[in-house]
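My convention is simple: the sequence line spells out the residues, with the fold written below as integer tokens. I include a record here:
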Amino acid sequence: MKIAIHDSAGSYSDRWKEYCDENQVHYKLVNCYDSDIVAQLDDCQGLMWHWNQNDYKAVLFARQLTNSLEKKGIKVFPDVNTAWHFDDKVGQKYLLEAISAPLVKSYVFYSRQEALDWLNKTTFPKVFKLRCGAGSVNVSLVKTKSRAKWLVKKAFGKGFSHINRFSRLKDRFWVLKRDKNLTAIRGVLTGFARMFIPTEVERFSHNEKGYIYFQDFIPDNEYDTRLIVIGDRCFGVRRYCRKGDFRASGSGIKAYEPELFDKKCIQSAFEIANKLKTQSVAFDFIWDGQQPKIVEMSYCFAMSSFYVGCPGYWDSDLTWHEKIFNPRNFMIENFVKSITRLELSK
């Protein structure tokens, strides 16, 4: 057996390579941006590539390459089931509705008039989102019909940039107030610079327009619950909202104690992941009364110190295992096992 790993410093591949070296897994490094990448994989049974929404080149073709390689008989991480809906909240709406998952009620419109007609009948506040964006970027609370109408006009006019520069700078000031360190100061300075100098993603991405997406606002949630399911393991973090903000993502205020997590929520995460046949999935849950509901989902997640504090994980029987772990090990361990099982079945 031989697998290929797209090598990118600072990505999951750093740990994947170490795992292969430590466990005598035969692998080679590849560049998925090469025009002949399909031919390069002729001697491999699998490809692992950690791509994300901040790489405009990957967004252009990663899903198409994945689907093509699966047709060729090569296993991929993330595979089609895991990532076709990545960073696409509209796609996630349809997918979760199709399997009757507990999604916060969501609405999408593809014409200005239909959106305006709906605004005249609905109640406020509502949560406005773009299809793309992580860490609470492009998410805002719409408190009035007039504000919603302004958003509709923009959505079916010039559209919205992928990056809300003002919101990003505001968030960095909040981090500075919270952390009061040199890293936070650098973040604010970078945010100022980005007010005038666009990122590569901004320069090569088109505006989001031609649709508008809202979710119901569920009040009285002071935190959300992020649960990550990788195979038959689930771990989580409770993310608290900033003062005066309904968004938990991006706050950096967190807790990991297992007693904070409702078993009903964990069971739901396992069940939905199994229905979707995902290799890795992160669900963001909030509470609607006594019912946990999904806000959105993602196949990958930040691998900074944010998850280092997790003291353990649950298995699919909801048994708690208190031990230090590396989620990237779960990914490659499960991936190698899936290829081994496939080879043995031939």
Observations:
- The longest helix spans residues 327-345.
- The longest strand covers residues 280-288.
- The chain has a mean pLDDT of 90.
- DSSP finds twelve helices and 15 strands in the chain.
